[in-house]
Structure formats: C-alpha cells, structure tokens
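User:
I study polymers; will you set down one protein's sequence and backbone structure tokens?

Assistant:
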Amino acid sequence: MALINCPHCGRQISDTCGVCIHCGKSIKSLHVGQLKKYFSLPSIDRITLDNEFFYVRNKKYGKVMNKAASLSLYKSASLWTAVILGICAGILTFAVVKTNPAQQNNLLIAMSLPCSFVMAIIFYIVSGILYLRLRKVNKKLIISLKRYQKWLKEEKAIEFNPKFSSSWQSGYYAQINLNEEEF
C-alpha cells in the first residue's frame, strides 16, 4: 500500500482507495480509451443519464434546458409570423390596387402597406429580443453541458463530446473554465 495524490484535490490518499476520502471523487485512473462513448450507449441509457444529471441532481440545469427549447421555438415562430404577415399584407395591397385601379387613393390602400411594414418591424424586433435572450440562455446551456461532460467522465466513466450547430457555441464550449463559470 502506497500513498498517492488525489487527481482532483491533490491530497494524499491510499492507492487502494477507489474514492478520495477528502473530496469524495473517484480516483480511478481511466484513460480516454477506456471510457465508454456516450453516443454509442442505447438511447434509454442516455435518457436515464440526462434525467439523472439535469432533473434530479442539478435542477437548475434542467430549467435551462427547458427554457432554451421554449425560447428557440418562440424565436422561430415569431420570425415565420413576421414573414407570413409581410407576404399577406403585400398580396392584400397588390390585390386591392389591381381590383380597384380607380380608387388607388383609398384610405385602405394608403394605410395597408405602412401598417404591414410596422407589423413586420415589430415582429422582427421581438425576434431580435428573443434571439438575444436565447443567446444568453445558450451560454448557460453550454456551461451546463460542460458540467455534464465532467460529471459523466468522473462519475460514470463515459466520454461525452457534444456537437454544436454553430462555431460560436463550439468556441465558447472549448474556452469554458468550470472553476470560473457559474450562473
């Protein structure tokens, strides 16, 4: 029996221990090649791990996951609503002008295009606000994914490498220092 340093807290412990007596973390010397791959696990196992981390152990991370999903849905819905309203208003204005060429100075014609333009601008502003809010929530989501990766590696001996849809997300994920980042 020899004394070794814990890879997590640096204090001395017995080499026969499976868990550090000081910090409580696993000291198994696993190499990346020995870790199970997260995406090679059956989907039911991945769902179980996700639920354990996000909704049982760390409920605030689960709330971030739910908020990111709902904001993303609202953002895409508001953007499509703005596009559809703009197209409908343009078609309506065109139809009124073509059917009544003698009444082109009608109040309806005069107001339909500016009103549709204002409605489209309002929806684009709402979409922009939702985008900024979603970006802030995405940062929290990325931090929680980094913590999830650490938890899977240390507690479950599973390698997790998330895939991101944009380069700023993967860049932000790569630069996160979990000792400094918190929300």
Observations:
- The two ends are 42 Å apart (CA to CA).
- The first strand starts at residue 3 and ends at 5.
- The CA atoms of residues 146 and 174 lie 9 Å apart.
- The chain has two domains: 1-30, 32-175.
